[in-house]
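Before relying on records like the one below, remember that each one covers exactly one chain. Contacts with other chains, cofactors or solvent are not represented anywhere in the record.
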Amino acid sequence: MKRSNRYSPEVRERAVRMVLEHERDYDSQWSAIGSIASKIGCTPETLRKWVRQTEVNTGRRGGLTSDERARIKELERENRELRRANEILRKAAAFFAQAELDRRPKR
C-alpha cells in the first residue's frame, strides 16, 4: 500500500519549521500545530507526525530516524526474498533427491 504524497517536501519542511519557530508564541506545541495546520490546509495530526519525525531525525526526541526506518524496511524486504529463495531451493533439492531415489538402478 503506497501513501499519497499530497504535500510536497518543501511544504512539509516549511510547516514543521513554522511550528518549531513559533511554538513558544502559543500555550503548547499542540496549539501551535493546530493553528499552523489550518493555515496550510492539513490536519493537525498530520502536522504533528511531521513534527515528531523531524524531532527524531534531529535528535531532539528518541526513536528511529527516517534513514533507519528506510534501512529496516529494505532489510526486511531482502529477508523475505531470501526466505522465498531458500524455500524454492529446499523444495528443488527434495524433488531431485526423491527423483534420484526413484530412478531404477542400471543392470
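The radius of gyration is 26 Å.
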